[in-house]
Amino acid sequence: MKNLNAIGLDKSKSKELAEKLNTLLANYSIFYQNTRGYHWNIKGQKFFELHLKFEELYTDLLLKIDEVAERILTLGNTPLHNYSTYKQTSLITESTEVSDGIKAVENILESFRITITLQREILHLAAEDEGTNALMSNYIRAQEKLVWMYSAFLTT
Q1: For residue range 106-155, what is the model confidence (pLDDT) as tens digits?
Q2: pTM
Q3: Residue 51: CA atoms inside 13 Å, Cβ hemisphere, count?
Q4: pLDDT tens digits, one per residue of 6-46
């Protein structure tokens, strides 16, 4: 029993899972800030359409950031919380191209590719952790649909 955390999971496995979740948290945080930049600075013919879509996306990412951080805490660990660490940890890089709608959507699709891949790794690692497993499954399902939609936007 000493090797179990407060929710009955192995402490060492939970620590490993929390480290992966912190990587996801870092990726989500950079993804979020990039998307806010797209929302603020988008220009061109698709302004109204993309401005709204980017706001929907960053609002959803903010919710996920909170859920992931709370899951890390539930596992008995500490979530990362500063952007300097996020920048070092994240596979998603800060975007410098924020006004071109096509480039923004391409960057969003690449960010989804990175996060979905990481979430699948977490899903595999969380085989005995139903809470994390369910969270990742829900994220993957919803994000795969968004990938389809954003990809359709780029198709001419």
Answers
A1: 999 999 999 999 999 999 999 999 999 999 999 999 999 999 999 999 99
A2: 0.95
A3: 9
A4: 988 899 999 999 999 999 999 999 999 999 999 999 999 99
Distances (CA, A) of 14 to 8, 27, 58, 128: 10, 20, 28, 10
Domains in the chain: boundaries: 13-154
Contact between residue 140 and residue 42 where contact means Cβ atoms under 8 Å apart = no
Structure tokens at 12: 């060492």
Superfamily of domain 13-154: Ferritin, core subunit, four-helix bundle (1.20.1260.10)
